[in-house]
Automatic annotation (TrEMBL):
<dbReference type="InterPro" id="IPR045141">
    <property type="entry name" value="NAA60-like"/>
</dbReference>
<comment type="similarity">
    <text>Belongs to the acetyltransferase family. NAA60 subfamily.</text>
</comment>
<keyword id="KW-0159">Chromosome partition</keyword>
<dbReference type="InterPro" id="IPR000182">
    <property type="entry name" value="GNAT_dom"/>
</dbReference>
<protein>
    <recommendedName>
        <fullName>N-alpha-acetyltransferase 60</fullName>
        <ecNumber>2.3.1.259</ecNumber>
        <ecNumber>2.3.1.48</ecNumber>
    </recommendedName>
</protein>
<dbReference type="GO" id="GO:0000139">
    <property type="term" value="C:Golgi membrane"/>
</dbReference>
<keyword id="KW-0808">Transferase</keyword>
<keyword id="KW-0012">Acyltransferase</keyword>
<feature type="domain" description="N-acetyltransferase">
    <location>
        <begin position="17"/>
        <end position="214"/>
    </location>
</feature>
<dbReference type="Pfam" id="PF00583">
    <property type="entry name" value="Acetyltransf_1"/>
</dbReference>
<dbReference type="GO" id="GO:0004402">
    <property type="term" value="F:histone acetyltransferase activity"/>
</dbReference>
<keyword id="KW-0156">Chromatin regulator</keyword>
<dbReference type="InterPro" id="IPR016181">
    <property type="entry name" value="Acyl_CoA_acyltransferase"/>
</dbReference>
<dbReference type="GO" id="GO:0007059">
    <property type="term" value="P:chromosome segregation"/>
</dbReference>
<dbReference type="GO" id="GO:0120518">
    <property type="term" value="F:protein N-terminal-methionine acetyltransferase activity"/>
</dbReference>
Length: 260
């Protein structure tokens, strides 16, 4: 890939964007764009895994209307990995079917569009590709990702695409000696929704109220009984969402899998 084309990443007058898999010939540009867009330096192994499709799925965007030699050069990308739901940090956020231990998730690793091609809907299309891919896997229950808390354009994009923000993770990132919070966004597919859906919350509330009534009537019934239990405690916390989360330290060197 000639050097000048990597420096000259300006949008053509009438971009004709098309999407294709990322391939080995994209390696140099992929490394360059990641270096330009992210505060994290990814290991070269990560890029090799991307371009060779080793444990990573990816889509690239190119502008077919750029001059010769650049018309197949990446101007955007998304990379993702399939993870087992039961081994993921969001297992508790899924409607988990114990008989289906093979449930999977798609975790978006990196997403980026070079500056001169922003706000053309390219990232939206790339994420749609990921969602389509996840939806076509019958065992897949969600697409999820982390985003650093100050990345307003990315947060706006995920919200616009109906991702749900399910957690704020305190000091999740450690970049250049400083801590940053992260948001965890999720997009459910194939019915893999949270175990605390509105309907289930209502059902839970009704169950609590019924149990409360039973307790009251039990107390009235036992009133006056000398040896009866003084107090009945009810501690069902099955629907409380855990607030703790393993933090990840990311230094400027050596990160390979965290989305910012
Ligand atoms: C985030 C990013 C991928 C978006 O790419 P894009 O191709 O411009 O995205 P789209 O054109 O599909 O959509 C952009 C949306 O964000 C909005 N947006 C852009 N900048 C914004 C900002 N600073 N604040 C709020 N919204 C913003 C646009 O208006 C548009 O929304 P709209 O369709 O409602 O108008 C791109 O900005 C980027 O590569 N950033 C650097 C790398 C990065 O942060 N990656 C994400 C890591 S989580």
């Amino acid at each position: 890939m000639p050097c000048y084309s990597m420096m000259n990443l300006s949008a053509s007058r009438h971009p004709t964007i098309s999407y294709r898999p990322i391939q080995p010939a994209d390696l140099e540009v992929l490394v360059k764009i990641h270096g330009d867009l992210f505060p994290i330096r990814y290991e070269i192994e990560f890029f090799h895994n991307v371009v060779h499709g080793r444990d990573i799925v990816s889509w690239g965007a190119v502008d077919r209307n750029r001059p010769n030699g650049e018309s197949d050069e990446l101007i955007g990308f998304v990379t993702a990995r399939i993870v087992m739901a039961k081994e993921s940090e969001i297992e508790d956020m899924l409607r988990f079917d114990k008989s289906r231990s093979d449930q999977t998730l798609v975790y978006i690793l990196t997403l980026g569009v070079v500056e001169s091609y922003r706000n053309f809907g390219i990232a939206t299309s790339l994420i749609r590709e990921v969602i389509k891919y996840a939806s076509n896997m019958p065992n897949c229950r969600a697409v999820y990702l982390h985003v650093i808390s100050y990345n307003n354009s990315a947060i706006h994009l995920y919200q616009k695409m109906s991702f749900l923000c399910i957690r704020r993770l305190h000091a999740f990132y450690f970049i250049n000696g400083q801590h940053y919070d992260a948001y965890l966004f999720i997009y459910y597919v194939n019915g893999g929704r949270s175990p605390c859906s509105p309907l289930e919350l209502v059902t839970l509330l009704v169950t609590y109220m019924r149990r409360g009534l039973k307790l009251v009537s039990a107390r009235v019934w036992k009133k006056g009984e000398k040896n009866g239990p003084k107090r009945v405690k009810y501690r069902d916390k099955s629907c409380l969402l855990p607030m703790t989360q393993g933090k990840r330290s990311i230094t400027i060197e050596g990160a390979d899998s965290d989305h910012v």
